[in-house]
Amino acid sequence: MRIIVSFSAMALVLCSAIVLLCISFAPTKASALSVSASAVSLPISSSRVVSYSCSRDDAQISFEVYDQEIATIENGIVYAHSVGSTSLRITATCGEDRAVATTKITVTENPSLPLVDLPSEITLYLIDKNVEEAKANGYNNEISFTSFGDYTTTLSNKIVKISKDKIVATKEGEAVATFTSTTTSNTYSVKINVKNVPAKIEDLPESISLKPSQTASLIYNIQPSFYTGEAKVVFKDDKGILKIDGTNVTALSSGETWLDVVMNEEVVDKIYVKVEAVIKANLQAVSNCAIQDGAILLSQDQEACFTMSITTLQGEQINFSGIEIQTYGVSLRKELNYFHVTSQTGGYIKIEVPDLASIIYIFVKVV
To answer: Are strands 266-275 and 279-287 parallel, antiparallel or unpaired?
Structure first.
């Protein structure tokens, strides 16, 4: 009986030792995964490193910003883009374990920055057609900008429309736009010029040759194609040898003139117009003068004598009763079929045949 009892006691001791040994070498369970982060506050156009803590050093951390127009995050660094608040989500993963924390990002105005990223003066153009072509040629009817805070605007002259960080030209003129922060006293002013695109007239001829009573039509185009303003074009002749009716030009009498091309009350071009005469003067020197290239050459204050007949280009004689003669810088008198002329500095004789709407000039030169 004693032997049995001793054996049982030994067995009990042995089993207890084995259990203790197994407990000593059993693996320890990992600590629970957790993550936390502090709120982030920073001014616009700046950056901050996110401050967070994780219970496991070997955990993988990822970040996600809810409103990326306010802020973005890269490699744990927050970048502020516009004033406002948004949420930042931090996720820690380790194997199959996952922990999430949420914090707040607040972006405030930056006193060191202007309220808007606009220059102090801008120029826009009135354009309502072929806008892309206009932009390609350097003419913009609008400009977009970035704001560094919420603002209100006031205009000294309503020539533009401002909304959603964009300025659009609506009327020609000048104005000052003042941007005022809604949260601070910060203001920023911009001078705005709105102009019409410079226009030009194309396809007009450089010169026109007409005969008396003949009419020519002046065809032109206003360029560039995106020109939007008014283009009032008129033609003017100061010499009165042309009749102008819109774009139709009719020769009233022979002669030469420059036709003014006027757009919006400004002379922008000139067209040389020659109305060919249908008459000619036939001159012959008699005394104290010479005839050269249709001009009379004489000595100062010495009376010269010549004969003159006026005919059509076909040689038909024209009676002097149908001829009007005017002189400039010369003295002229007629005796029978002879003309006597004197001059101190030279001048010309104007011969006009109203029935044929023709004028010719005979120049007198003192040599």
So the answer is: unpaired
